[in-house]
From TrEMBL:
Record EC number: 1.1.1.29
GO molecular function ontology, one term from the record: NAD binding
Keyword flag NAD: yes
Gene coding for it: hprA
Keyword field contains Isomerase: no
UniProt name for this protein: Glycerate dehydrogenase
Domain D-isomer specific 2-hydroxyacid dehydrogenase NAD-binding positions: 102-296
InterPro entries: D-isomer_DH_CS (IPR029753), D-isomer_DH_NAD-bd (IPR006140), NAD(P)-bd_dom_sf (IPR036291)
Species the sequence originates in: Maioricimonas rarisocia
Gene3D superfamilies: NAD(P)-binding Rossmann-like Domain
SUPFAM superfamilies registered for this protein in UniProt: Formate/glycerate dehydrogenase catalytic domain-like (SSF52283), NAD(P)-binding Rossmann-fold domains (SSF51735)
Keywords, in A-Z order: NAD, Oxidoreductase
């Protein structure tokens, strides 16, 4: 058996790969021509598979993608090929869920607006001029300041795509006392937190009920521009749209128009239809928008987890077992 790694990885990783591969031969070609020669009799591959490499392979059975998302990895010959493909999903679920809760807490407590004020040394409670929220209007009355700051226990968070990342978001939101909803084409309960994940035909119901809508779905032919003007208009006018899945799922122009027209109250985005977001895009200047540059998955643990998945799948391949994170190539996830 033979395993090819291309493009090359560092020496420490290569040593770990060789150790996991045991009796399986490991080739680490230094350039594309060498990779074309090595892949001819390879059984397994890790890295960036191109149409040329696949065409040269004669007995490839398993490929491990280095990324979670596959929209830039798949091509027609690969989809049709009988080989098994596994991806890197699940490595960042906890840290991305933390990132999402960061967005939620900013909007609930207006932290993103107070940060802007802090830069200008401005003391100005959002919602009004009073300096003692909760006491300004007398017992039992809700002051404008109180109204401008949410109680998370009163809020509903709806997740679109309850997979690895979506499940972690559901767990965290529930721990903050939020009501949680979820839709997924393959609904599976999030144990102890959300028994009834809805089928996709209830997406608009989820949108109408949620104060925070979080997109944690992959880019697939079905999710492309899923959030257009019409779908965004199903959301509450007080709601916030959060996207940490893929930028193409949200029509950026429609979202911009919706924010400018107060169709929804805010947005927090880590991924964009165009990355980097152009410098002159109107979203940069909106006070009710939080933008992060595709960093929701960034964490010091990712590199080790990435290697762990690869090594586990090499071990499984050698043992004749199914890889973890197997992908349905026709569905792109
Ligand atoms: N912002 C970032 O840095 C990162 C973003 N991602 C994105 O997050 C996506 C999800 O990652 P995981 O949760 O690990 O993957 P996963 O495969 O565990 O979960 C994806 C879920 O989305 C569901 N889904 C598929 N089509 C759908 C549709 N039309 N509507 C609603 N749900 C649908 C699937 O059934 C699955 O349950 C990835 O595909 C990737 O695009 C992943 C890693 C980092
Ligand atoms: O692997 C992915 O899909 C990512 O977005 C990593 O940031």
């Amino acid at each position: 058996m033979k395993f090819v790694v291309f493009p090359p990885v560092d020496d420490r990783r290569l040593a770990a790969i060789r150790s996991a591969a045991g009796p399986m031969q490991v080739a680490a070609p230094a350039d594309a021509n060498a990779a074309l020669r090595e892949i001819v009799d390879a059984d397994a591959f890790f890295g960036k598979l191109t149409p040329d490499l696949l065409a040269a392979a004669t007995q490839l059975k398993w490929v491990q993608s280095p990324t979670a998302s596959l929209e830039h990895y798949l091509f027609p010959e690969l989809i049709e090929h009988p080989l098994r493909l596994s991806n890197m999903r699940g490595l960042f679920s906890d840290v991305i869920a933390d990132h999402v809760m960061g967005y939620v807490l900013c909007f609930a407590r207006q932290l993103h607006r107070y940060l802007r004020q802090q830069i200008n040394h401005t003391w100005s409670p959002i919602g009004g001029e009073q300096t003692r929220p909760g006491f300004a209007t007398g017992p039992g009355q809700v002051s404008p300041i109180d109204r401008a700051h949410q109680h998370l226990g009163d809020c509903t968070l709806g997740v679109v795509g309850v997979g690895h990342i979506g499940s972690e978001i559901v767990r965290r939101a529930a721990a903050f006392g939020m009501t949680v909803l979820g839709v997924d084409p393959y609904p599976r309960p999030v144990e102890g937190v959300l028994d009834d994940v809805w089928a996709l035909d209830r997406l608009d119901e989820l949108l109408a009920a949620s104060d925070y809508v979080v997109i944690a779905a992959p880019h697939t032919p079905e999710t492309e521009k899923l959030f257009d003007a019409q779908r965004i208009s199903w959301m509450k006018s007080s709601a916030v749209l959060i996207n940490i899945g893929r930028g193409i799922i949200v029509d950026l122009q429609d979202l911009t128009d919706a924010l400018e027209g107060n169709v929804i109250a805010g947005a927090a985005l880590d991924v964009f239809e165009t990355e980097p977001l152009p410098e002159d895009h109107p979203l940069w200047g909106m006070e009710n928008v939080i933008l992060t540059p595709h960093v929701a998955a960034a964490s010091p643990r990712v590199a080790e987890r990435h290697l762990d998945v690869l090594l586990e799948n090499i071990r499984r391949f050698v043992a004749g077992e199914e890889p973890t994170n197997l992908v349905d190539k026709t569905q792109w996830f």
